[in-house]
Amino acid sequence: MRIGEVAAEAGVSTRVLRYYEEQQLLTSTRTPAGHREYGSAAVERVQLIQLLYEAGLSSRSIRALLPSVEAGEATPEVLQLLAAERRRMEQRIAGLLTARDRLEDVIEAAVDPHHDCVQRARTR
């Protein structure tokens, strides 16, 4: 399959496919004219890569996980890496929740100059 065909079937741009190749997540061969050609499993691999990105994984983590995930073999190392990614994500979520709460205080203070957070800020 040519790059445009894979991109269309996988629902991504050709630029994304080139990026995946740069990141060593996807491979292609070249025709004598220099065009990229992908194997029959390329569309499924691209869709799996997309899913892993949507799960918040970095290209480095995806590169490490991809062979095991495709084979359906969850090695202890793979499970350890996924657990570490989940912990990292939980920390980010906690930080975002704290930021949201602070923003809520700011919104309330914007409409009420006597709001508790304004009073705390004045006493600092």
TrEMBL record:
Residues 1-68 form the HTH merR-type domain. SUPFAM superfamilies: Putative DNA-binding domain. It holds the Pfam family MerR_1. The keyword DNA-binding applies. Keywords: DNA-binding. GO terms for molecular function: DNA binding; DNA-binding transcription factor activity. Gene3D superfamilies: 1.10.1660.10. InterPro entries: DNA-bd_dom_put_sf (IPR009061), MerR-type_HTH_dom (IPR000551), MerR_fam (IPR047057). This is MerR family transcriptional regulator. It comes from Streptomyces aurantiacus.
